[in-house]
Amino acid sequence: MGSINWTDRQLGVINSIDGNTLVSASAGSGKTAVMLERVMRLITGESGKARVPLKRIVMVTFNESVAAELKSKISSRLSKKIAQSEDKDYLRAQIEDVPLADISTMHSFCSGIIKNNFEYLGVQPSFAIVDENEKDMLFGKALANVLKEYKENYDYQMDMLINYFGGERGFCDTIVALYGFLESQLDREDCLNRLAFLCYDGEFKDSPLAKAFIDIVKADAAPLIEEGEEKLALFTREGMAKRQQHISLTLQMLRGIANAKDVKELAGYLDLLPRIETVPRSKKDDDVDKSIGDDYKAYNSRCKEFIFGKLKDKMFSQPYDVMQENIFRSRGYVERLVDVLGRVAKEYAGAKIRDNKMDFADLEYYAVKAMQNDRIAKDTADCYDYICVDEYQDINAVQEYILSRLSNGKNLF
User: Fold this and answer.
1) Which of helix, strand or coil describes residue 356?
2) What is the C-alpha separation between 276 and 307, in angstroms, rounded?
3) Is-contact 322 157, C-beta < 8 A?
4) Which of 98, 113, 138, 407 could form a disulfide with 367 if both were Cys (CB 3.0 to 4.6 A apart)?
5) How far is residue 100's CA from residue 55's CA, in Å, rounded to a whole number?
6) What is the pLDDT of residues 170-210, one digit of tens each?
7) Within a 10 A sphere around the Cβ of 191, how many other Cβ atoms?
8) Distances 266 to 177, 303, 319 between C-alpha atoms, Å
9) 175 and 341 in contact (C-beta within 8 Å)?
10) Can you tell me the distance from the alpha carbon of 179 to that of 197, in angstroms, rounded to the nearest whole number?
């Protein structure tokens, strides 16, 4: 690593240790390597400042394997420096600290905050983490229990609500999506209270529920746009002009949906959209690997289902003005939807508490609860001199809050 010929810009970032630093660069440009070099120079004092012990540095990654690789590289590079060092004991101490260093995923770091403050949070420190499969099972069971209660005590509004979402499956998908939005909020309880717009006097588009829906739509569109951009680059490289033109139009639709500022604008945009045409073929396309064509057809089908099956033909089958009038007439149904969401959330939380388990969102939730306490936040922040975050652009609002409470305002990379 020491033989890397750093560019002037990279060296500027590596040596910028007296304030917050945000690095924006394309994938594969060496951002993680720059972060590692910066940390190494802090530890050894090559930064020109006093040495910073590894245990005073936080390195957050979004992948366990990357965290393990960073630990391995730090240990290896420190070992190589011992022979030339005048303070071998210091370097040996740093190597000994590597296994327990705060080099981990955001969720692992949150877990540490929780375990250090379990009494304040009222949780057991021996909690287990549920994976996504177990989470889906527990949440599905909680949702089924709540729906069973409604079925046992016939509820006309509930029946109508389920029918509105195209049946029980569509209704359950909506609850799952709304709960996902709820998990991403700093204060779940407050957000749940604000989701209903029953007391809102303005337009539906400005209501908390409508804003939550727009966030869900944008989240659904994002991976389709990312995948589409990769396919567009492939078609451009391969000279597949017809497919290049076809996917460009699809991407234009998806970006229009993602850029809509509210449901009124989204409804108007969808109303003007033409149908996505079938995937074109040409002799040039046939000469390319058939798997590319099959993969694109599958992608095209997913885009059609999202844009037309889910949005244009179902959620926005009526003009916005008609939709708003019907919604305000149906406030009781919206209230019931939020009530179901709250009951499912409570049932799911109860199941986790009984089994002493947390999901990844819980780790963030309880870490936020801890860091909202000024004493805990100060005691935690005082443990670190520098905070380094890999792939910072991927963090959510909850994670950013935790990092902001951890930082002193001039030590975040």
Assistant:
1) coil
2) 9
3) no
4) 113
5) 8
6) 899 989 988 988 888 888 877 777 665 544 556 778 877 78
7) 16
8) 18, 16, 11
9) yes
10) 17
Residues forming a β-bridge with 57: 386
Distance CA 193, CA 374 (A): 25
Rounded to whole angstroms, the Cα distance separating 221 from 302 reads: 11
Two tokens, residue 51: 């040495």
For 59, list phi and psi in degrees, rounded to 5: -125, 115
Bridge partners of residue 357, in order along the sequence:
128
Contacts of residue 305, defined as CB under 8 A and 6 or more positions apart, other chains included, come to none
DSSP 205: G
pLDDT at 54: 94
For 104, list phi and psi in degrees, rounded to 5.
Answer: -160, 180
- Using CB atoms within 10 A of its CB, is residue 190 exposed (0-12), middle (13-18) or buried (19+)? exposed
How many Å is the Cα radius of gyration of the chain? 26
Measured distance CA(113)–CA(226) in Å, rounded: 34
Q: Which amino acid is at 5?
A: N
pTM value > 0.70: no
3-class secondary structure, 388: strand
In tens, the pLDDT along 85-95 reads 888 899 999 99
Side chain identity at residue 30, one-letter code: G
Structure tokens given for 150:
């409604």
Residue 342 is which amino acid? G
* Total number of residues shown for the chain: 413
